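Consider one such protein record:
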Amino acid sequence: MADRMVEAATAIVTGGAGGIGKATVRRLLDMGLSVFIVDADEKSLDAVLSEFGPSSGRLDGCRADVMDELQVTQAVDRAVARFGDIYALVHVAGGAGPRRARDIEDFQLHEWAHVMDLNLTSAFLAARAVVPLMRKGRRGRIVVFSSIIADGEKGPLTTVTGRLPYATAKAALLGFTSQLAKDLAEFGITVNALMPGLILGEQGTRIRDKFDKLAPDQRAALLNGYPGGRPGTGEEVAAAVGFLLSDSAGFVSGVALPVDGAYR
């Protein structure tokens, strides 16, 4: 069975209250995992906990800034106190930052650093916090989120705000994944990266709102690169996460997996 899980497995999902994150939480609960959500948006976090928590009994979470070393460590400690050993880290958290700009001279250093920290440094902090637990148990799964934007994107800005630092950070995550996978293989820990294309979550989620605000011709141009003529869904990305966390993926590590409908 492709999604068979180790008994009593627990996963931490950062950014678990967003569009892809929420779909991932749902998928992992359906697979039988206990899930601890870490998210900076307390209102959205509470909504997900209220929606899924009572029915599952295997869901908890806390608000934390994934760019803050202490808060990340404390969040992992809370997850361990609640559910025990950590089997998986799914690091969905990230983003292109609040600054909408295309040209390199339009970025201030602090804006560049913010996007680097939000995507790359946060992955380092989260992985560093869970790896000792996984190494001790000699098992584990780490999935980080890169993007098809890691290869760059032509044309005008669309749903990605700070495209240059975002592409740079997402490309760096691929090197991070490749090296960490090699470093941890002897301990039975796999490390993989997903590279989603345009993924639209439910109404009211961040990327969906940005997409809906585009002019019709901009939406059409954005979808033109997708042979299927449509964006992906959070559920489709969550299915890939589910596979990478499953027993069936025990020999899959160091992979950068596009989930983009043949966009590339």
Q: What stands out?
A: Residues 10-259 form a domain with the Rossmann fold fold (CATH 3.40.50.720).
